[in-house]
Amino acid sequence: MGEEQLVTLQPGQRCNKWTITKKLGAGAFGAVYLCTHGNLTAALKTEPLNANPPLLAMEAQVLQDLHGIKEGKHFTKCHDIGRDTQMDPSGRSVTFNYIVMALVGKSLDKLIEERPGRRFTPGTAIGISVQMVNAIRALNEIGYLHRDLKPANAAIGRADENELDVLYLLDFGMARKFKRED
């Protein structure tokens, strides 16, 4: 990743107005944290300032373009996007980009791991497939290709929000616009 520095945030640390609660996961391009602001709990994704390609910028653009569409229930809400600087453990300052999105439930890959025989019932598979097709169609109708469809990039809603029957399509960093406005 060259000179790109990944930031590590600790519970209790603040990223602008967001307080980090815990780390949810990490990958080659950054990490995802559980965060809060007032009564709102959300997911905060980070990426290095000079990430190449800059995935969070594309993710924010796609989520903005999806806001308010008919099939919008399949996409998370973007609460905040920005840039912050933190000190790493060695005392160097690290500037990074972040995006804060509505929290969703478990990803399909995690749900598959939990299932007996690592497979869904036919009825569940059909329900997931129909919602996935609707989500992909909605994304395509506003001119985007996802380009990274996999079980880890889809999740169900949260039980505490009564959304267990809602499928969310996630992670639009690799998405590309294929349709021009004119």
UniProtKB/TrEMBL annotation:
Organism the protein comes from: Meloidogyne incognita (Southern root-knot nematode worm)
Look up the signal peptide feature and give its range.
Answer: none
Keywords per UniProt = ATP-binding, Nucleotide-binding
Question: Which InterPro entries does this UniProt record tie to the protein?
Answer: CK1_Ser-Thr_kinase (IPR050235), Kinase-like_dom_sf (IPR011009), Prot_kinase_dom (IPR000719), Protein_kinase_ATP_BS (IPR017441)
- Where ATP binds, per the record, is at 45
Full protein name: Protein kinase domain-containing protein
Q: Which PANTHER family match?
A: CASEIN KINASE-RELATED
Q: Name the lineage.
A: Eukaryota, Metazoa, Ecdysozoa, Nematoda, Chromadorea
Cited Pfam families: Pkinase (PF00069)
Where does the record place the Protein kinase domain? 18-182
User: What GO molecular-function term can you cite, just one?
Assistant: ATP binding
